[in-house]
Structure formats: structure tokens, C-alpha cells
User: Fold this.
Amino acid sequence: MNPNRKPIIAGNWKMYKTAAEAVALVNELKRAVADVKESSVEIVVCPPFTALAAVGPVLANSNVKLGAQNVHWEKEGAFTGEIAPAMLKEHGVRYAIVGHSERRQFFGETDAGVNKRAKAALANGLRPIVCVGEMLAEREAGQTSAVVASQVRGCLAGFTQDEMLATVIAYEPVWAIGTGKTATPEQAQEVHALIRKLLGEWFGGDVASQVRIQYGGSVKPGNASALLGQPDIDGALVGGASLKAADFAGIIRGVL
Ligand code: PGA
Assistant:
């Protein structure tokens, strides 16, 4: 972490929780983090689309912000199964995850599509959380830097400096997601530093020093502070552990 960047801890609930279950979980979470100051950490939860309408009012005027797990680039239209930015904003959504590795692996999303989603989010006042990360075989073949650099380049193509500043990047090594295998703080820091260096080359050092880069992949209360203690790790994108209020709150407390 770096004092110039406010840490951001986001929970990606994936395809878990009905609307009723989601309301119960955010109520529990709100209680668990009631004393956490917004000035010290930004907290975001990203429930499934069907829970947004119910969860939005529960989080209004709280220190927990609402995010979505994807967003389409068109305003509306014949795009079965997709969701438009205005549909999210209506429920108080402020962030949208784009390019999660599960979207890439199981639903064929590409860097070019992720770029369109992120641009549309920004044009509509939503902040994208752009996910990148290498597969195990790519890491073992020594391709991590090349893969991540190419994803970052593709996903952020054509961004202005202001768009870059409004964007969060999540580095999530695919082999660490949901596997219990976390990247070591040093492995994660190495990639975060590489991403920040690339941002510096494209957007200038001033912008690069302000962009927040989250780590994701089996983050738990027990490993969060070591990861977040690294100079270029500015937060966490948390899957499994965000489904338990006490664990998610434990991760948040790890950055205080
Ligand atoms: P995990 O998921 O924390 O369950 O590994 C992280 C993610 O997919 O964002």
C-alpha cells in the first residue's frame, strides 16, 4: 500500500446469494464494519444482478458501496442475458467488474470486449474494475509478464488519463482463484509493479502513481495484510471469503 492511494476491498459474490440472502449478508457486513471510516478504506460488494435492487437501499448512506459483476457496452438493445449501465445505476451501483477470468474462460470474453465494457461503464459514471491475470500454464512457461501486459494494453486501449484515474485494475492469477493457492506477496508485488510501470509509460508517472491495483485470488483474513503490505498492492478483489461477513470484515481490518 501507498498512503497516496486509498485501499479498495471489493467482494465478488459470483453466482451466490438470492436477493433475500444478499440482504441478510449486507446487513451483517454493515454491522461488522460500522466503525470503519470511509476515509481509510473503500469497501465494495458485487452481488448478483438479481440482488442489486434489494441491496441498493440497504447500503444507501453506509460505508459500503455497491458494485456489479459485469456491464454491457450498449445503452439498450437485443443482447439477451446482458445488462446496461443505466440498469445498474438505477440501483445505486458505482463499480462494475469487467473481464473477470471466469467470464473470459467460460463465456468467451476477450480483451477487446472488456475494453468496450470498461469504456461504456466510464461513459456512464460507473468505475470499472478491470481484471487481468495469467493461467497456470502461462506462468510455468515464463509468460506471466507478456500475458498480463498484453491484457492490460488491450483492456485499456484508447483510455484518456481521466478514464484511467477512474479505473481500478485487479490482478488475479487464474491459478489462485478459488483454489486456496495464493500468490506470495512477492509474486503479486512483481506483477503489480510491472502493471504500474506500463501505466507510467502510457499515461505518465503522475497518473500511474494514483491508479489502484487490487490483488485477487484466495485472499483470506490470514493472508490479506501481508499481500496488502506490498508497495504496489492497493486492495483486494475477494471471492469466497467475501461471502462470510466476518471473513470479509477481517480482510478489511487487515488494511487499517
Ligand atoms: P477467490 O476469488 O477469492 O474465491 O479466490 C477471487 C475472484 O474470483 O475475484
Summary: Strands lie at 8-12, 42-46, 64-68, 93-98, 127-132, 168-171, 212-216, 235-238.
